[in-house]
Request: fold
Amino acid sequence: MARQAKLQTVRDAGGNPYAYTYDRTHEAGALQAKYAELPVGTETEDEVSVAGRIMAMRNNGMFIDLHDPSGKIQVFCHKDSMNEDELAKLETLDLGDIIGAKGKIRRTPRGELSVRVSHIQLLTKCLLPLPEKYHGLTDIEQRYRQRYVDLIVNEESRDTLRKRSLITTAMRDYLTKQWGGIEVETPMLHPILGGATAKPFVTHHNTLDTDFFMRVAPELYLKRLIVGGLADCVFEINRCFRNEGISPKHNPEFTSAELYKAFTDVNDMMDLTEGLVQYIAQTVFGTLEFKYGDNVINLGGKWPRKSMCGLVMDATGVDFMTIFDAAEARAAAKKLGVHVEPTAKWGEVVAAVFEEKVEDTLIQPTHITDFPLDISPLAKVHRDNPRLTERTETYVNGWEIANMFTELNDPADQQARFEEQVKAREAGNDEAQMLDADYVTALEYGLPPCGGWGLGVDRLTMILTGSPNIRDVICFPTLKPIKV
RNA sequence: GAUCGCCUAGCUCAGCCGGUAGAGCAACUGACUUUUAAUCAGUAGGUCCCGGGUUCGAUCCCCGGGGCGAUCACCA
Reply:
């Protein structure tokens, strides 16, 4: 009998193949824990009811593996415990059906905790066959396109996405309790592109007849909240959108955490990065050591803080701090085999050399401090050097996972930096930011000394869960629709 | 966007030199009420990603298209 026919059989017998509810007493995981000590071969008089999806059936339906999100329990359908009507229901069940089962707890002679069923009920018919039980669903495309099927059959997928949820929960706890932050939500639709150097998505509001950019970063709005004194510390964990290439490390929509706290600076933000990541690692995973590919990453202790130019010098022997002329810097880069645009500024050259020669080597957590002014339009000038800013990026596993700075709060300086961005934009750089005059106005009202911080939630999750592709840590990653 | 690779039954995969498609699991029929990827016997199941071309004949060779993956570019 096919699934549709069985569904009809259930209806004909007066049942509902799509039940309204079910009175479940226990989740599978709770039973496994409660009866962990129940000896092999023991029968009990403890009545329970469970509900979940049929993932395997053996011996003509006598043994059913019932899975729910908490775990698995065997359902034992023996004729001595079931009347004829109940036994007949077994005929209508298929792999994948969601059922409820009621009966007494026992542990079989083979050691499997089971419910000796007296009453069984189809709760939701599954009309499509499940992927093969042994190999599961391995086709990577189908796993992402039909995540629901992937989740039904692949424990690792469920585990990774659950871990992600635990990670963001721990993150909220830490930012709220340890840093006194309040979580806020700022616009996704931005009239002006700002907060990061990136290509945007453009969308349109009909009744306003206005184009908006999907935000590339929430930064400028969050700092406006600090200006307003909504709180001394605000944070947001939410989506950003960048219209750029897709890769194992890039999804067009990704989740960033950003935090701003008055009366702190970049040094405090480095403490935040370490404290947060270590807190998450400990509370969610109970360890500070993580395997990723061939690397073992140790998140413990104080992470080294090294200046970008210093690391570039270590790697190449070239001290860019002694080079003041952009042309000279470009020549030095060329000598090192690093390609830079003929118009590249000193800071852009340094960053290019850093990315080429240093980035991949930063497997263990490292704070890269003292970013060049040229590539940091929203960061405050370094208190000791006008060519640098108080900006740090944190690298783990060769990836940038966090970016932080002492926020630029001098409106005149910010105005000038925006104008530089506008010039770059007019010169054809479609990633350059726009002049946000209202943001400058906000700074004119006064942004207190302020540290700001952002972290890539997806990448952190990849590292902590050992996921090789960013899509593994996103429930529904961006895919190209299939054209017919 | 570029290069390389992949796409065969619901799922996991074979398929030789171009001769007209196979297995395991799932399904269906039957046996079996203490199984653990249950077992045993049998049955059925295909737009070989799509569209052209070459050929007597194309899953296979060629061209175009689609989707996915890896690497690169861009970037977080």
Remarks:
- Chain A has 14 helices and 20 strands.
